[in-house]
Design a protein that fits this description.
By secondary structure, the chain is an alpha/beta fold. It has a domain at 102-157. It is 40% helix and 14% strand. A five-stranded mixed sheet has the order 4-5-6-7-8. Strands 1-2-3 form a three-stranded parallel sheet, covered by helices on one side. The two termini are 17 Å apart.
Length: 295
């Protein structure tokens, strides 16, 4: 029996990826993935194109979105599967986040250009795709082109890092609790994205005891959190072990994914990490806001 290869976290030019929804699906197909979710940041605008590509390629299509959210002032992300894309609160919160990203983008470019004058707003915008998210990946690609950094990852780790007080600017995002509320109300299944990394903000803050971390996850489960993205390249090895234990304790859905952003972005390909079929079927059983289109 052949089991499906399931990747539930992919990005396109509709947010901060560098390939069209169609191309993302084609790359996933070439990597042997046959169940996919396009989870662009704060938008569902790529769904129709991705769904059509999946139908042509014989892949199962899973509607998804990745909400920008805040956790005690830091930026985190919440994946929402099978949401209703027309649900008013979802549309409002996603729109507010996208609009504020424009101000944040321009502010960061202005700060960085004070030290790197060639990084003008006009130059950075040449790396932006119409309809996509104005965000740090666009700035990173511009910095790479200028030779200021050696890779997109280096830009994120240094110049664009949240702890770089000289250049980094935050943006509006709902709290993680509010994001969970919106996803649930929209008929979706909320899954905490990459919750235990070395670089990103997460519930696993330094200095917290195991009991305190468990309590923080438990509080989100009480609010309706349904799953954890355990198998992700940016979660630490220790973090994956702890997340798996927390998921087992609360009977949460465990997902795995690539978080693919396109050629030249994160050094991963679709299918690098995958979700078990049993876990996928739990998502399918819970979501009511939109439909999976099975191959």
């Amino acid at each position: 029996m052949t089991f499906p290869r399931i990747d539930l976290h992919l990005h396109s030019t509709c947010s901060d990826g560098v390939e069209s929804p169609t191309r993302v699906m084609e790359v996933a197909h070439a990597q042997g993935v046959n169940v996919v979710s396009l989870t662009d940041h704060d938008t569902t605008s790529g769904w129709d194109e991705a769904r059509d590509a999946c139908a042509r390629l014989g892949m199962t299509w899973v509607p998804g979105i990745e909400f920008s959210a805040s956790l005690e002032g830091d930026s985190v992300h919440l994946l929402g599967y099978l949401v209703d894309p027309t649900f008013p609160d979802l549309v409002e919160e996603a729109g507010k986040t996208r609009d504020d990203r424009v101000w944040r983008f321009e502010s960061m470019v202005s700060k960085i250009s004070a030290d790197f004058p060639a990084l003008t707003l006009e130059f950075v915008l040449t790396f932006h795709t119409e309809g996509g998210t104005l965000g740090r990946p666009t700035i990173a690609r511009a910095l790479l082109d200028l030779g200021v950094v050696g890779s997109v990852s280096e830009a994120f780790d240094e110049i664009l890092a949240p702890d770089n007080d000289k250049y980094f600017v935050g943006h509006y995002a709902p709290t993680i609790e509010r994001a969970i509320e919106v996803v649930l109300a929209a008929g979706g299944v909320p899954v905490f994205a990459h919750p235990w990394t070395a670089e990103r903000a997460s519930l696993a803050r330094p200095g917290l005891s195991d009991q305190e971390i468990d309590a923080k996850f438990g509080a989100l489960v009480d609010r309706g959190l349904a799953g954890l993205e355990v198998h992700h390249s940016e979660n630490t090895p220790f973090g994956r072990e702890r997340l798996a234990a927390i998921a087992a304790h609360y009977n949460l859905i465990v997902t795995g994914s690539s978080d693919y952003h396109g050629d030249g972005m994160k050094p991963v390909l679709p299918g690098e990490h995958t979700t078990d079929p049993d876990m996928f079927e739990r998502i399918a059983a819970l979501g009511t806001g939109s439909d999976i289109v099975r191959a």
